[in-house]
Protein backbone atom coordinates (compact mmCIF):
# COMPACT_ATOMS: atom_id res chain seq x y z
CA UNK A 1 0.00 0.00 0.00
CA UNK A 2 1.53 3.31 -1.07
CA UNK A 3 0.50 6.61 0.36
CA UNK A 4 0.64 9.93 -1.39
CA UNK A 5 2.39 12.77 0.39
CA UNK A 6 0.07 15.38 1.89
CA UNK A 7 -0.70 18.39 -0.26
CA UNK A 8 -0.14 21.64 1.58
CA UNK A 9 -2.47 24.62 1.44
CA UNK A 10 -1.60 27.74 -0.54
CA UNK A 11 -1.26 30.59 1.99
CA UNK A 12 -1.01 34.21 0.85
CA UNK A 13 -0.18 36.86 3.45
CA UNK A 14 -0.88 40.30 2.00
CA UNK A 15 0.01 43.86 3.00
CA UNK A 16 -2.63 46.01 1.29
CA UNK A 17 -1.15 49.28 2.51
CA UNK A 18 2.59 49.01 1.86
CA UNK A 19 4.55 52.08 2.82
CA UNK A 20 8.00 53.00 1.68
CA UNK A 21 8.75 54.28 5.19
CA UNK A 22 8.68 50.96 7.03
CA UNK A 23 11.05 48.02 6.78
CA UNK A 24 8.52 45.22 7.33
CA UNK A 25 5.27 44.09 5.78
CA UNK A 26 2.17 44.36 7.99
CA UNK A 27 -0.37 41.67 7.09
CA UNK A 28 -3.83 43.05 6.39
CA UNK A 29 -5.29 40.06 4.53
CA UNK A 30 -4.80 36.30 4.36
CA UNK A 31 -5.95 33.92 1.64
CA UNK A 32 -6.07 30.15 2.05
CA UNK A 33 -6.30 28.31 -1.28
CA UNK A 34 -7.37 31.58 -2.91
CA UNK A 35 -10.19 32.32 -0.44
CA UNK A 36 -9.77 35.36 1.79
CA UNK A 37 -10.32 34.62 5.48
CA UNK A 38 -10.95 37.30 8.10
CA UNK A 39 -8.16 37.85 10.62
CA UNK A 40 -8.14 40.03 13.75
CA UNK A 41 -6.41 43.37 13.23
CA UNK A 42 -3.71 42.58 15.81
CA UNK A 43 -3.30 38.91 14.83
CA UNK A 44 0.18 37.44 14.92
CA UNK A 45 1.18 35.18 12.05
CA UNK A 46 4.03 32.76 12.63
CA UNK A 47 5.92 31.08 9.81
CA UNK A 48 8.04 28.26 11.19
CA UNK A 49 11.37 26.98 9.88
CA UNK A 50 11.65 27.74 6.18
CA UNK A 51 13.46 24.84 4.54
CA UNK A 52 13.82 23.86 0.90
CA UNK A 53 13.15 20.18 1.53
CA UNK A 54 10.23 20.27 3.99
CA UNK A 55 6.74 21.67 4.24
CA UNK A 56 6.46 25.03 5.96
CA UNK A 57 4.11 25.30 8.92
CA UNK A 58 2.09 28.46 9.49
CA UNK A 59 0.25 29.39 12.67
CA UNK A 60 -2.37 32.12 12.48
CA UNK A 61 -5.51 33.34 14.20
CA UNK A 62 -8.64 33.83 12.14
CA UNK A 63 -12.32 34.49 12.70
CA UNK A 64 -14.59 31.48 12.17
CA UNK A 65 -18.32 31.60 11.47
CA UNK A 66 -18.77 27.92 12.27
CA UNK A 67 -16.57 25.08 13.45
CA UNK A 68 -17.59 21.46 12.90
CA UNK A 69 -15.77 18.57 14.55
CA UNK A 70 -17.06 15.20 13.39
CA UNK A 71 -16.14 11.90 11.82
CA UNK A 72 -15.97 12.28 8.03
CA UNK A 73 -19.03 10.04 7.49
CA UNK A 74 -21.09 12.24 9.84
CA UNK A 75 -20.54 15.51 7.97
CA UNK A 76 -23.65 16.73 6.17
Automatic annotation (TrEMBL):
<protein>
    <submittedName>
        <fullName>Uncharacterized protein</fullName>
    </submittedName>
</protein>
Amino acid sequence: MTSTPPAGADIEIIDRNPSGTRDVLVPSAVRINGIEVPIPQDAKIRINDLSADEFVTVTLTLFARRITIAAEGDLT
